[in-house]
Amino acid sequence: MSGRTTWDLSTARFAIYYAPPEAGRWWEEGSRWLGRDAITGRFLDAPKVPGLSCTVHDATVDARRYGWHGTLKAPMRLAPGARLGDLREVALAVAARHGPFTLAMRPGVLPAGSGQRSDFAGFVALCPGAGATPVNVLAEDCVRAFETLRAPLTDAETAKRRAQSLSSRQGEYLAAWGYPFVFDEFRFHMTLSDRVGTSDAAAIVDWWQPRVQTLGPMCVDSLAIFVEPAPGAPFVLHERFALGGRA
């Protein structure tokens, strides 16, 4: 947990993420892959991957800044008058409404979207197979419950999102919820790369496939507040909240 509790609330962003238990192998493996531990802030040596045209470090520049996580409520600035204590209260309430569950994760490629070069596959991520309903329910609760604490998007933030060529429904969600990929447009995932070419994507998937089998189901037993202390700064895990209200 981050020891810092004060930030410039006009610029800091807060996100509600899932992060694997810090003492477990899922946390260690994912943090090592990205090259940074979002709890300690320590930089790590990423593995070497056969068939990858660049280093893992170069393939994970953006992903590393966000840390090893799965998004439940996308990064947001706090609304005027809202405080970190308000965020904690909502997190405690949401966590108490949901029990722990497991997800069978598998690596795959998520689409790059329109406007990308034809030789770019998209980005690689771990996604759940069957049995994703509990995490979808948890994410929907997070999207709704934290909404009163979210500051409106700036014009620049909105323009950046709309540059992704959103569908009409995604555009409506962006306007209403500050993020286009919610509810029926949501797909839980844990990012393994930035946008990469098709051959690099295949190399990453091949590297992760046997490892997810060895690691086994991912235990979702908490949600966490992550903080971006200043624009462009690495996100850090500030505090966890156990599902089911466990201590």
From TrEMBL:
Q: Which organism is it from?
A: Pandoraea pnomenusa
Give the protein name, as stated in the record.
Answer: Putative phosphonate metabolism protein
UniProt-listed InterPro entries: DUF1045
Q: Which Pfam families match?
A: DUF1045
| Superkingdom classification of source | Bacteria
